[in-house]
Amino acid sequence: MDRLSSSVEPAASLVGCLMTQRDPGTIDWQQQPIRIASDVKVWPVRETGEPIYRIEIPATHEFFRVGLPEYTFLSALDGHRTIAQACGLVTAKMGRAAPSSSQCESIARWLIDHQLAHFADAPPPRRGRSGQTSNSSESKAQSLMRWNPFWIKTPVPGAAKLLLPLSLALGFLFSTPMLVVGVLFIVAALFGLTTRWSEFLAGAASIFDPSNWAWLLLTAIGLKLVHELGHAIACHRAGGTVREAGVVWVLMTPLAYVDVSSCWRLSSRWSRIGVASAGMFVEGVVASFAIVGWVFCESEMIRWWCHHVILTAGLSTVLFNANVLMRFDGYFMLSDGMDVPNLATEANQSVRQFLRRWFLGDATWVRSHTGWRRTAVFVYGWCAVAWRVLVCVSLGIAASTMLGGAGVLLSVLGGWMWWGKPFVTWLQSTRTLWRTHPLQVCRGAGLGSLAVGMLGWMLVAMPVPSSVRVPVVVQYRPESAVRVGAEGFLVELLVNAGDQVQAGDRLAVIENRELLQRVAELGIAQQQNDIRLRKAIESREESERLILLDNRQAISDKLQTLRKQSDQLQVRAVQSGCVIAEDLLSKLNTYVNEGDVLMVVATPTDKEVLAVINQSQVEDVRQQIGEPVRLVSAGRQTFWGTLDQLQPRASDRVPNASLAATHGGPLAVRMKDESSAVSSSDDRLGEATIDAMRLLQPHFRGVLKLSATEAQRVPAGMRLEAHFGWHQAPIATRLKRWFQNALAEAAEATN
């Protein structure tokens, strides 16, 4: 939804001076005649029982809000009276309720800054009206400076008229009964989703598969169409109109938009909040239907598509529509809730004034708001600055990663469009200020250089401590696993899960007739060779005797090996302990391979902790070898272990399935192509599934030893988080590593 069609001011312009045609420091404001711009519209409304006046600039679709004293002062500015004369006239009319002389001067500054008024001897503000074109080189240059390759808005002619009959026909969807039903349906769907949350998160890993991105794009486009249609229907039902509709290209991705700026003319702010939230409401209902389809539908294709609809609707709502720092639905809802119609503009103005005061020593401060609103607007301004910088950097990285060399060029162009115009404006303002107040320029240059130097040191050199946290899982020691020594059919199980056994006890019997037959055949071959050997000795044939002796040794070695394997057909416990196995009986009468884990025989103290360490953390973790490490569970329960060893080389193999994102773990993985051929019946032991997994980035493995007391406290299979001290890298180093990891993951996903 596009409530205001005026462009957002770039963050770099916050350091620019507040001068359009004159230097405010050289103006005697009290003696200046001011005229309200001829294209400005004003109309009264009542809020909380008090008269309030709304101001609109139709050309830019900007809206403002003033009280009765401010409006009385505005009405006295006819271009002939000075500010002092207008202030005296207002005082004569309103008495003590009239604004003071300093307040009138602040109001006049505010009017000039927002182009609501102009000096009587100056031309009126020039605005780029929608639908008009200018052939002047100045207008073309301004249009080029406003163009942004990351955000290109393309209105569709006639789209707004087509939305009118559709909105009137579907207006009943926003009636009170339908809204109540919709909210209850959304709540019920969310409750149903939480009951299968682990399964939903496990399937979310498919969003990183490049083969699904085209479907995600189509789903996002469809959801945005429904979203914007919800805004249009709600706007028409509330009494507003859709001014225009079209497509906005975000990173060359087409998304729909509708301009419902007319809702600012609605008298009730709750109606405006309703229009702003309509898109998210409709999108929530669509996502709720998708949840129902994902939960109850048996078709894997439909469940897969419903899963993508839920993910796309949820991510777009949280990151964009509900984000108050972007000019989308959440911003307009916050603006209406605070009763600040142009929250972003007011916030930028507040931050600019703060910078002028501290860097240039300009003590003038235009207070458009009082009380808690003034503080809230100021805080919002700084949060918006930080968000814009983050978005600018993120879009640049995304474009460079997704589009290669063209993306780098696009990022450079976008950076110039964002920062070039404010930089040029700042240079022009500085040059003008130098002519009248060179000391202010020197002060600003000195303090600005100091601030930039401190910021650069904080980013590049200042260590920022952060806890080194690594995902770990508790498992039984490898030597406690009972592995199959010879392949064959498991024909007999002599124990059950939970039985106590001693070292050497028989646990199972494996049948391999081929192996036994080969042992018998070699035994017969050995006897025949011994008979021929005795005959050669009796006949004193030395050469044949030597050959038969070599044959006897070879047969004996092979027979010894096969007998050892045949002995392994009797599976025995390697140590005393309790038999631990999941669904042990299902393995009976199945074929097992040599080396497969049949079961685990262990005591409660035969446990260790396996850590999977990212390459960027391995050096910090290496310093903790032999040191105690704190282990924290999801329920904030604390355990202690000691880092015993660290694997010298990284590997992309998943050491434990519970750590993989597909099983609810924290590590992003991909499945090898042959994994699709592995069925659940062929993988009862789970090892084939683990072998089919690959980490997106190689990780190091570490082993933490547990004391006997701690081993009894923590259950096997539990996922924990290990805290390995503190990482001291500066912010720039962290950003560099994050960017390198992002590129590596993108390249891995592409391959």
Walk me through this protein's architecture.
By secondary structure, the protein is of the alpha+beta class. The protein has 20 helices and 25 strands. The strands form six sheets. A six-stranded antiparallel beta barrel has the order 10-19-24-21-20-25. The protein has a four-stranded antiparallel β-sheet with strand order 11-18-16-13, with no helix packed on it. A hairpin with a 5-residue loop joins strand 20 and strand 21 (638-646). Helix 9 packs antiparallel against helix 11 (329-338) and helix 15 (513-539) packs antiparallel against helix 16 (542-567).
Total of helices:
20
Largest sheet: 6 strands, antiparallel, barrel
| Residue windows where pLDDT falls under 50 for at least 5 positions | 4-21, 129-145, 674-685
Structural class: alpha+beta
Approximate shape: elongated
Mean pLDDT: 80
Outline of the structure:
The protein is α+β, with helices and mostly antiparallel strands.
Write the layout of secondary structure elements.
Blueprint lengths: L32 E4 L4 E7 L2 E8 L4 E6 H8 L2 E5 H12 L6 H13 L3 E3 L17 H10 L4 E5 L3 H11 L6 H19 L2 H7 L9 H26 L5 E7 L2 E7 L9 H28 L3 H22 L7 H10 L4 H18 L11 H65 L1 H23 L5 E11 L4 E3 L4 E6 L6 E2 L4 E6 L1 H27 L2 H26 L2 E3 L4 E4 L10 E2 L4 E6 L4 E8 L3 H5 L5 E5 L5 E9 L4 E3 L15 E3 L15 H6 E13 L2 H6 L5 E9 L3 H20 L1
Antiparallel strand pairs: 1-5, 1-6, 2-3, 3-4, 7-8, 8-9, 10-19, 10-25, 11-18, 12-14, 12-17, 13-16, 14-15, 16-18, 19-24, 20-21, 20-25, 21-24, 22-24, 23-24
Helix pairs in contact: 2-3, 5-8, 6-9, 8-9, 8-10, 9-10, 9-11, 12-13, 13-14, 15-16
